[in-house]
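I'd like us to work through together how a protein chain folds, taking it slowly. To get us started, please write out a protein record for me. Go ahead whenever you are ready, and we will take it from there:
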Amino acid sequence: MARVLGVGAWLALSIAATPAAAQIPDTFKNLKILPKDISKQELVSRMRGFAGGLGVRCSHCHVGGTNDLTGTDFSSDEKKEKGIARAMMAMVEEINGKLLKKAEIENPVTVKCVTCHHGVTRPETLAEVLERAVGKGGIDALKAEYASRREKYYGAAAYDFQPRTLNEVAEWLSGENKGDVAIAVMQFNIEQNPGDAYCYNLLGRLQIDAGDKAGAIASFKKAIALAPDDQWSARLLARLQSESEPPKP
């Protein structure tokens, strides 16, 4: 039976087998956050964690060089991204080393780059991305941005493509008095998620605000058809239907 390599042994072999490893110096200069005596193996492991967490290559923070790191100046502080990385590293050390202890959480989960970034450079939610898009270019821009991110990231941890994301955008637009755009967002959400009852509930409430009682009635009926125990939609539907009934003679 073949022996299973430990993590340290596997990493050492990986480093040795990687062409870029030949370009990584054996001693390090200008370390400000990492320990001065950090081993090459540990440093490479950490750097790979940073790169994977942000979905970038070494050149994101380091000056010069190619993908195999030839000509890279690791000690240079020229790129602002390196300074940002140092600040983030200090923040993570503060959280893991001090703040988690103060929280007195049993078996706390330590914070890493990937905890917030999930494989993308800018750690923001999909709702924030779409709010920015719709603010600049309207519903068509939102649809294009959603489709682009979904094609690239669906199935990864980077963004939440559940119906709640577009719900959040629609509610934000409603709060900004852009009810017509909010309704368009929910109609798009339903195209993506036709079986989600809550989407129809939210659409119905937005239609009420817009004065579209007939549309709201249709939306609540659809919500109830998908979720027969949806008492919220049932109450709103009953109210609208009673308001729509002609007065008794």
User: Anything to note?
Assistant: Residues 1-17 have pLDDT under 50 and may be disordered. The chain is about 60% helix and 0% strand. The CA atoms of residues 163 and 193 lie 7 Å apart.
